Amino acid sequence: LVILLATISAAGAFAPSTASRAATYCMSLSMSEEETETVVVNEAPVEAEPPAAPAYPTLNGWTPDPSLPCWGLPGVSAPLGFFDPLGFSKDKELTGAKRLREAEIMHGRVGMMAVVGFLIGENTPTIAYGMTNDHTIANDQIPEIPGTVLFPFFLAINIAEAYRASRGWVEPGLGPLWTLRENYYPGDLGFDPFGLKPSSDPKAFANMQTKEINNGRLAMLAAAGCIAQELVNGKGIVENLLS
Predict the structure, then answer these.
(1) Per DSSP, which regions of the chain are E strands?
(2) Is-contact 138 118, C-beta < 8 A?
(3) Staple 92 to which of 57, 76, 96, 181, CB 3.0 to 4.6 Å?
(4) pLDDT at 197 over 60
(5) Torsion angle, CA of 133/136/138/142, rounded to 10 degrees?
């Protein structure tokens, strides 16, 4: 009997008890949690994505917006607002809208100079007609001006146009024809000897640009009216106003 009891006691010493199994399970669970926590702590922090770059470059405070008429270019003013009854700018891509604005602002500048030329060329001493005011009307002056006076005039125009083309237009063969450079703002040739361009205030620049465009539009109509008036009766502009 004593030998039997000793044998049973020895066998029981090697059998795992319920408490031992529970302790082993808890220890394993604790180790698993520690490993999980270690993995979470060692994860690299997620870096914030940089903000997306604008789809179009900002030029002189103007960022092209396809949802606005003519991509949001300045020139819209009361009472007409955006006025394009013939739809020239409708469904135009950005390059086409910039090209239309380039043509409008350049013709407006020529129109302003033309109106001044009508008034001065017909009523003040000039290189071609001397110190007298007995001039031919402006419509007929170019055929009467000698070539020695016209050549420097047209040469200056060619130089100015070549500079404008090199500054604002893509060279032939490097892109589609009649395409303005992406970083070129229509009409901005960098010529501002009196420093009138607002460089730090986009709203002030847009306001000045709108004024220039509106004056150019008026000048184009005025120049066309001067030409038509002189074709009707052959009299100068001031002479018509005084008669």
Answers:
(1) none
(2) yes
(3) 96
(4) yes
(5) -120
- The DSSP-derived string for 161-228 is HHHHHHHHBPPTTSS-TT-B-TT--TT--S--TT--S-SS-HHHHHHHHHHHHHHHHHHHHHHHHHHH
Would you state the pLDDT for residue 126? 72
Tell whether the model's pLDDT for residue 6 goes beyond 90. no
**SS3 state at 81:** strand
Q: Lowest mean pLDDT: which of 27-36, 54-63, 158-167? A: 27-36
Give the count of alpha carbons within 13 A of 60, CB side only. Answer: 20
Picking from 145, 124, 141, the residue whose alpha carbon sits closest to that of residue 133 is 124
What percent helix, strand, coil does the chain show, rounded to 5? 55, 5, 40
Rounded distance, CA 87 to CA 218, Å? 20
Spatial separation of the C-alpha atoms in residues 225 and 68, rounded to whole Å: 33
The token pair at 38 is 């270690």
Residues 6+ apart with CB under 8 A from 56: 63, 64, 94
pTM over 0.85: no
Length of the chain: 243
Of 27 and 51, more confident: 51
